[in-house]
Structure formats: C-alpha cells, structure tokens
Amino acid sequence: MSLLSQLFLWFISDIWTTITSLLIAYMVYKMAKFYYQYYSLPPGPFPLPLIGNLLAFKTKQHCNYVLTKFAKKYGPVYTLYLGNSPQIIITDAIIAREAFRKKYLSGRPQSYFGNSFKTDIIFSDYGNHWEALRSVAHSAILKYSSNEQLVNVAVDCVDQTVQTMLEREGPNKPIDPFNYIYLTFLNILAISTFGKTYSIDDPVFKQLKYMLTDVNEELATRRLLWEISPIVRWIDQKMIRKNEKNFSDLIDQFIDKYRLHYNDYDSSIERDICDALITAKNNALREAKESAQYLTDENLALAIFDLFFAGTNTSQNTFQWILLLLSYYPSMQTKLRQEIDSIIGDRMPTHEDRQRCHYVMAFIAETLRFRNVVPGGVFHKAMITSKIGDYTIQKDMPVFAYQGFILRDDKYWENSETFIPERFLDSDGHYMTARSPAFIPFGVGRRICLGEKLAIVDLFLVLVRFLQSTQNYDIVLDSHNGLDILPNGSFNDIYPHKYTIVLKTK
Questions:
Q1: Separation of alpha carbons 185 and 205, rounded Å
Q2: Beta-bridge partners for 390
Q3: Quick one: which of 21, 118, 203, 467 is 20 to 30 A from 400 by CA?
Q4: Confidence of residue 274 (pLDDT cuts 50, 70, 90)
Q5: Which residue has the higher pLDDT, 64 or 45?
Q6: 388-404 per-position pLDDT tens digit
Q7: Which residues pair with 392 in a beta bridge?
C-alpha cells in the first residue's frame, strides 16, 4: 500500500473517530442536561430519554388512572414527561386556585393541535388578543344563557329527540342513546348560534359529529404522538394532511356561517349568540376601543367554533353520564321525577326553576364531580419563571390542574368514589351555592371554561324536559357493556359511549 493510501486511510479513520467522539460528547451533554432538569423539578416518575414516561400509559386503562396513581405517589405537585417535554401537574385544589389566579400562569403552550385553531380563545396564548376575544364572547354567552329563547330552544330539541327515539326505536326495546343525545346538544348550540337545526340522518350532522367527536376516537393515541414526535408526524404525513384539510374546511364553514349573519342582521334584535358578537364588534368599532382590532370576523367565528368543539362534547358526555346514572339508580330517578312533578308539573321549565329544583341541581353537580369528562383540564403555560409552592417553574413550561383527581380527592370529599347527590344539599335540602374549593369541573382561574354558565343551564333544561317527556316510561339500563357501575366501584372509561337503555312503559 502506498504512503498516500495509508495517509488517506489514517485521515478517514481519524475523522470518523473525531465525529464519533463529538456525537458521544453531545449525547452525554444532552443526557446530563435532561436529568439535571429532572432533578430540579417537582418529583415524578423517572423518565427515559426521547420517550419520557410514555411507557407508563401502555395499559388498557384510561390515562386518567395512570395520572391518579402518580398523584397519590408523588403528591400535590409532580412532573410528568411526554417525550422530552416536562409537564407540571397540580393535584391539590388550594394550590391550583392560588396558581391559576395569577396572570403569569395563564399562558397557553404551543401545540401541534392548537395551531389548527389559529386565533381562537381556547388555544390562544394569554395577551390582549385573548382578553378582548374572551371578554366579548363571555358577555354574549352570559346574556344568552339567561334568555327565555334558550328555554324554548332546549325544550323543542328535547321533545324532538324523544319523539325520534320512540319512532325509530320504539318503547320497551334497547336504545343506544349516544347519537340522540349528541344531536340534542348540537342542535341547541346550532340554533343558539346560527339558527340552524339538524336531523339524525342529516349528512351535515354526521360530518359535524365526525369532525368534533368521532375523529378523536379514530385517531386515539395517534394525535398525542403527533404532538410530541416530529418523526411520527413525518411518517403519518398523508393522514395528517387529510386531518388538517378536514379541520380547515370545517373552520371555514363556521366563518362562512358567521359572515352570512350580516345579510339579515338587525341591531335592535339579538336572535342568537352570533348577533350578540356582531353587536359587540360594531360597538367596539364605533367607540374606537383598543379591543376592536382583535374582533375580526375570523376571530369571532373561531370563538363560536370553540363552543361547538368544547361545549357540545363536554355537555353531551356529561348528560350521557346523567342518563346512565339515573338509569342505574332507580330510586334517584324517582326522586328527580317527583321533584320536577311537584315544582314544575307539565309546564315548560324556566330559568327560575333552577332556584327551586334543589335535587335536580345537586344531581347535576354530583355528576360533574363524580365523572368529570375533562379530568386533565387544559394546559396552562408559565409566561415567566414562576413559583408553585416551593418549586421553581421555568418560563414556557406547561402546567395543568388535574381536576379529575381534585374532584375525587378524599381530603375534600367524604366517600369520594360514591355517587351521592345529597352532598350538594344543606340540612334543609336546599342546593348549596357555596361549595368546596375542590369543586372545579370547569377548570379554575383566569382561563376557566368560557361556557360554564351555558352548560349548567343546558344540562338543567335538558334533564328536566327529558324526564317530563318520558313521564309515561321508566328509564332502565339494558346493558352497560362491561362498565363496572357498582356504587363503590369505578368505571372502566370516563366516557360512557357504550351502553343501552330501555324506555319501559309504566
């Protein structure tokens, strides 16, 4: 071998040795930084590089149970790694309330999924844009929540639902209530925002239901992997492009529906939430308010989309639990019917009836506590380096209150795993408006759920009218498909999608 060849081989070998050494040094540095951060944060399960604590969720049980196990082991504030990203989880009501009342813990972290919403309320970061949009949307929703028109809308939607159930399924036969209940709450919101209603066979209803609900079940944990892994997103490019297009098309539909409202808008008449938002925008422009720049048609349409995306799913899922629980506990169903019959009778319910139907309100509150359908809440973000208890939380770190645990924390709730509506009644049997600080079914702090008031009103009106419309029947549980609903047991899932009822003729 010539000297030149030997020098070349030596050079190549030396280069590869150098590159390998640099790569090893870089990996050691990253590992050291990763674990230095781990030991500086609140305690939590030991993470692995790249995947963090994801292996802990390799179980048939819902992630809710994994998070509960960690909460009991690591205490009121702990750290969980999703990939290389640490998440701070608060499992104590007092700490959560103290933390999230502060502006600097009211941010929203960047996310792959959240970026699809562009400039909405749920996923926008804290700032002038968010404050302006939330303020007008919250005012519009509050105003409509106390409007008598909402009563008429809810009653009509429930009556139509019960009639359709009986016509299509018949009494004394098993009924899967999921689509019917979903349609009820979707129609209440569709009429309340756009003056539009759908039927059970309407292709538009099926499309909306798919994009707002079914796609989540279809993608399952895939969407979580998209959030934390660019590699998985690259592998799933075709699926992601299809999902993004469907989502973008749906948002465009909402923007178009909002803009169509201008065609017959009358400032002297507020027909729905959409009109209220247009009025708020026009007032801000006329008064030259600083917030006017954020009240664009697209932003306001996305605020309405938030109501559909979050409100329909959470309200209808909560009512699925209400229906399942009153079917499982016939004595409670009887008590609900007796109160409604004595207070309201056959007339339509009113907003004032919420002050008189104490057991109905307690039943709703206990359902929200017992089976909260958003146990993890929504992520916040530290906007500056902050303190939570004794721990320092770095800027931009995600933080959330694990409200599913807080709502069933034995420290705040006696017999927390038992469904007891009476816990929300005082000694005189009146519904208690002053409740435990651990009652946070809609979140806590500055970013508490935008539609809380509307959700409570809807649940009350739908429950009362549903029981009125089925007064000639007993609602009995036909099958729960393996769900364990023993009084002191636990459900195998937080979403009761798979059960059937029977409207049994009395």
A1: 12
A2: none
A3: 118
A4: confident
A5: 45
A6: 888 888 899 999 899 98
A7: 387
Q: Which residues contact 353 (CB under 8 A, 6 or more apart)?
A: 343, 344, 460, 464
Nearest CA to 228 among 62, 126, 119, 86? 86
Q: State the amino acid at position 491 in one-letter form.
A: F
Q: Cβ(188)–Cβ(154) under 8 Å?
A: yes
Q: pTM of this prediction?
A: 0.89
Closest Cα to residue 276, out of 150, 174, 161, 108? 150
Judged by DSSP in three states, 399 sits in: strand
pLDDT value at residue 480? 60
Q: How far apart are CA 484 and CA 493, in angstroms?
A: 9
Amino acid occupying residue 3: L
Sign of torsion, CA 329 330 331 335? positive
| Residue carrying the six token digits 């694990």 | 402
Q: For residues 106 and 104, what is the distance between their CA atoms, to the nearest angstrom?
A: 6
Nearest to 42, CA basis, from 403, 386, 384: 386
For residue 402, give the amino acid letter: Y
Tokens coding 453: 């008031």
Helix axes 358-370, 330-343, angle to 10 degrees: 140
Q: What tokens appear for 148 in the block?
A: 């008598």
**How would residue 166 be classed by pLDDT, with cut points 50, 70 and 90?**
very high
Identify the burial level of 187 via C-beta atoms within 10 angstroms of its C-beta, where 0-12 means exposed, 13-18 middle and 19 or more buried: buried
Q: Quickly tell me which residue has 């999902």 as its tokens.
A: 243
Give Cα 252 to chain centroid, integer Å.
22
Q: Rounded to an integer, what distance in angstroms lies between the CA atom of residue 279 and that of residue 398?
A: 36
Tell me how far apart the alpha carbons of residues 406 and 68 are, in angstroms, rounded to a whole number: 10
Domains of the chain: residue spans and CATH = 106-372+407-505 (1.10.630.10)
CA distance 184 to 349: 17
CA angle 432, 494, 314 (to 5 degrees): 65
> Beta-strand (E) ranges in 323-379?
none
